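Exercise 7.
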Amino acid sequence: MRLGVLFSGGKDSTLALHKTAAEEEVTCLITLNSTNPESFMFHTPNINVSRLQAEALGLPLIERVTEGKAEKELDDLEEAINEAVREYALDGIVSGAIESVYQAERIQRVCNRLEVWSFNPLWKSNQVDLLREIVKRGFKVIISGIFAYPLDAGWLGRELDESLIKELVALEVDYGVSPSGEGGEIETTVLDAPLFRKKIDVEEFEILARGNTGVFNIKKAKLTIK
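Solution. The predicted structure, written as tokens, is:
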């Protein structure tokens, strides 16, 4: 089965890609670049790095810019998926949704209209188990966005490891923060993963934060030999 992956460059879409590639043929990546940082559907921090990630994976990337307006952004998503389906003869689309019914339902509707399969390999998985799987597999993942109390600028740029997972579990207990950021509390950027032929080195960045909202903005990066 030939599948395209809705790819943000974050941990969930990258893990979904890896799980899918173990069973099926991943043919391309599809990225929506939202100009609205508060998009309901799409990850925004460091979305430009998806080009380097696609190169590291050796996969073609279909990119579309969207204004990120509620519901209208679904038209942009449908156009991007339709382009991928036509260009790469796809049988289905993969997403990294775990708990978001809002996202999963809308992706499913688009796929239904285009008559392709919608596959969510992470759906309803235990969030902490997924975080541990990511670390165990050797992914290098950094926190690239924080959007909830009591997160602050000190979280930005930190690498996901067992120690950080314990902190996230504690935040869930004390404040109800989703450990995987499925509620939009946390965004991530993947710098290396098992299927990456090269890793991404961050050469220049800036931290833009105010209170419990902020981003680790990668201004310059390059691929290097692993």
